[in-house]
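Record format v2
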Amino acid sequence: MIQVPLSVGVVAVSALAVAMFPRSVLVFLLFQGSLLFVYRARIPERLRWSLLAAALLVLMPVIGYFNSYYLEVATQVGIFVALALGLNIVVGLAGLLDLGYVAFFAVGAYSWAIFGSPHANIILGGGFPLAGWWFYVFLLVGLAVAATTGILLGLPVLRLHGDYLAIVTLGFGEVIRVLANNLDKPINFTNGPKGITPISRPPTPFGLPYGEYFYFLALLIVVAVVIVNRRLEDSHIGRAWEAIREDEVAARAMGVPLVRMKLMAFACGASFAGVMGVLFSAKQVFINPESFTFLESIGVLAMVILGGMGSIPGAVVGATVVTVLNLQVLKGFSLWLNELKNAGVTVLGYSLADLPTQFEPAKYERMVFGVILVLMMIFRPQGIFPARRRQRELGG
Amino acid sequence: MALFEARRVTKRFGGLTALHRVDFALEQGIASIIGPNGAGKTTLFNIFTGLYAADDGSVTFRGQPLLGLRPDQITALGICRTFQNIRLFSNMTAIENVLVGMNSRIALGLWDVLSHSRRFRRTESHLAARAIALLDRVGLQANANAVARSLPYGDRRRLELARALAPEPALLLLDEPTAGMTQGEAGTLMRLLRGLVADLGLAIILIEHNMRVVMEVSDRVTVLDHGEKIAEGSPREVQENVRVIEAYLGTRGAGPRGARRA
């Protein structure tokens, strides 16, 4: 029971530390770590969830008041958590390797970007952008459009497995990006590489600043997505998905309707990305095809694998870790090395200032990320929080 | 009208005729299909369950034609099977394996699942109770939460049987259920099958190599060789059939078996 005061203390201390050192990345990481600690601690469920809710609903926005960049990071984490949870259904549960997942995110983003900006005037005459409140309608429109796109992708790939499926989905992701890049002629749908701007933002309740507003909205969507995900997983639908992953032939022979279940997996996974795409385009005000590259798909896949395939807490933690790594830790690492270089620090008699530009620390970011992934796969292949059963299987 | 009837079922793989105009009918009880390796027994099962498409012939179940239906549709009609090389959902628990088998008996929509409607909760608890009962029937109730792959071989065979019973089939197709079992285990399994026939009115088609089992448990025996039906009848009749003895032991003085058809 010592963990009860410990949990409360860790959260309180780390929150206080952030307030005192709002610029320190390390202190912010400490705050995030404290949430993980609370999640894992052996404390009463009610206390656990109260602490997490307090941290996410109260402390995080307050921290954002001191350093708005942290709120931006938290919002991005929220977006990627939803994406990872969506991909987790397709890859983790149903076992359908999808390398073009970001396409659904793009479809959602463009659906609001086009109609929530003056851009739609080019296609449909006048009357645009739609009023801000349409944004809420478009959260559902984005969901529906992405789900439909998911089904459209699913139909031709129903018979494909493993590597073949991966290649086709990879191609699909590229097709969507290239379409976005080139659909400025003959009719200008996407404005090509120049992208679309300005995209309307919804009116915020209680005059909330947009930073806080999008943070809360992302949080709300993530909570909804987690609930939907859990309910699907604990139902005959989730079991059918897992059965397909384990043995497709046996699943069919046991009465699992393969086509319907696979399409449902694609549609459900895609719909989460669609919703977040709408939020993303409103948050960014500007979008172009650059935001939806193959690397983004791989990034989301890395989150799912790093967290633990088929595991909801895994997808959440995986998305958080990867996003924070990319936005904060690796950036911070680069900055720090650069400072050392500029200060002319010498290591073993060699002045870092003499380092040729090819060795510039900023260029190592992706490499460090890659090394982390490799090490993870070697030493903890089941992921950070493996799915319940997987854990038993590998932990043996 | 027979419960299950196949007529002139033909299946070719490229130049190889795996099945040639095979007739098969079953009214009730246990029918066995035997024959040397490669005779086409499993191919016949795969056609019966919709995994393969037949090139010719017809298959009917309670008067309903099956050819052209998907495997899950056939399962929903009341036919389920096990596999020669045990195909469980290895990383799922025993009870989850059985629950997957009930998929075709669940009439819940996406909305029931997402809203956790009363219908959903009632169905789930009902399914769980049925799954436990099925595991109990095959003697695996203590292992309900064990991951399938961690179970010993004999238990996995029995779990596969429980899973095949989950869709409430009227006809069960078992592909070598006693393979790799000791004589004692095989005997227990056969008593279990007999019980199923008696209690549930189940009809069973059995592919089996263990002749003692076949002779003991079957009401009728069909013999396949090189894709053709060469004999059919009661176990005793088949045992004394000359062509059957030839197929299993080779013809006296006729040289290697393969040469016969070449």
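The longest strand of chain A covers residues 346-347.
Chain A has 16 helices and two strands.
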